[in-house]
Amino acid sequence: MVALLVVATILVFLAVDLIVQAFQARARVKEAKPWVRIQADALQWKIHCPEGVFLAPGHTWSSIEPTGVVRVGMDDFARQMIGPVDAMELPKIGAKFRAGEPMLRLYKGASLANLPAPMDGEVVDVHTSLALATGAIKRDPYGEGWMVLLKPENLSQDIPRLAVADQARSYLNKEVDRFRSFLSAYEPALAQAADGGIPLPGLAAELGPQAWDRFRREFLGEKI
């Protein structure tokens, strides 16, 4: 009789525990951010570019310091499409690059991307703390999120290739339109927050390795 009571008690506790777990799981589902599938042409972006910042093909930005050196980072379009990065590889001080050559390597899980040098120049400083705390790119891509300081070698020749002010904004708008066309091939995989109108951060990396490599070629100018 005692044994039956013990068994019954254990069964009751198990039943109560299962009920509690079920309610907790339901609560987690309710708290989770809802996602809905939508068409690529419905996606909306807010891409930021401050005055005085030059944008280069491949989505790096440059700003000329009073000392003549050029501060370089990743623009807001690339930041949003790539999303948070896990790590980055910065060039060595003294390294020299030609415009368009891979200069900055970003790691995102098993994926990687290379951002090109915006102009010819020599690396005179790197933002080493950024490599350890990449969140600064999200907070302030054009300020705290800078990556490299370059000593330009052919600034007068390189500047005309870059976009600034209205040209920069027009360039970003065209890139957004181009990205919408790019996404049209992957509509079954698209997801967007139901209440926000902002694409999932890192959307380009969420579409699979083939789409990621295509994004690298078409938007970052990589030869892969």
Tell me, what is the CATH class of one domain? Mainly Beta
What is the SS-derived class? alpha+beta
Q: Measure the end-to-end span.
A: 75 Å
What is the H/E string?
Answer: HEEEEHEEEEEHHEHHEH
Largest sheet: 6 strands, antiparallel
> Level of helix content?
25-40%
In the CATH scheme, what's the topology name of one domain?
OB fold (Dihydrolipoamide Acetyltransferase, E2P)
Report low-confidence residues grouped into runs of 5 or more. Answer: 2-38, 191-198
Q: What is the CATH superfamily classification of one domain?
A: RNA polymerase II/Efflux pump adaptor protein, barrel-sandwich hybrid domain
Order of strands in the sheet with the most strands?
Answer: 2-3-4-10-9-6
Query: What value does the Rg take, in angstroms?
Result: 24 Å
Strand content: 15-25%
Q: Overall pLDDT, averaged?
A: 79
How many strands appear in the DSSP assignment? 11
Please give the count of helices.
7
Shape: globular
CATH architecture level-2 label of one domain: Beta Barrel
Describe the structure.
With 224 residues, this protein is an alpha+beta fold. The chain has a domain at 50-163 and 203-219: RNA polymerase II/Efflux pump adaptor protein, barrel-sandwich hybrid domain (OB fold (Dihydrolipoamide Acetyltransferase, E2P), Beta Barrel). Helices cover 36% and strands 21% of the residues.
Please render the helix and strand layout as text.
Blueprint: H1 2-31, E1 35-36, E2 54-56, E3 60-64, E4 70-74, H2 76-82, E5 87-89, E6 96-97, E7 102-108, E8 111-116, E9 121-126, H3 128-132, H4 135-139, E10 148-152, H5 155-158, H6 166-183, E11 192-193, H7 209-219
Antiparallel strand pairs: 1-11, 2-3, 3-4, 4-10, 5-7, 6-9, 7-8, 9-10
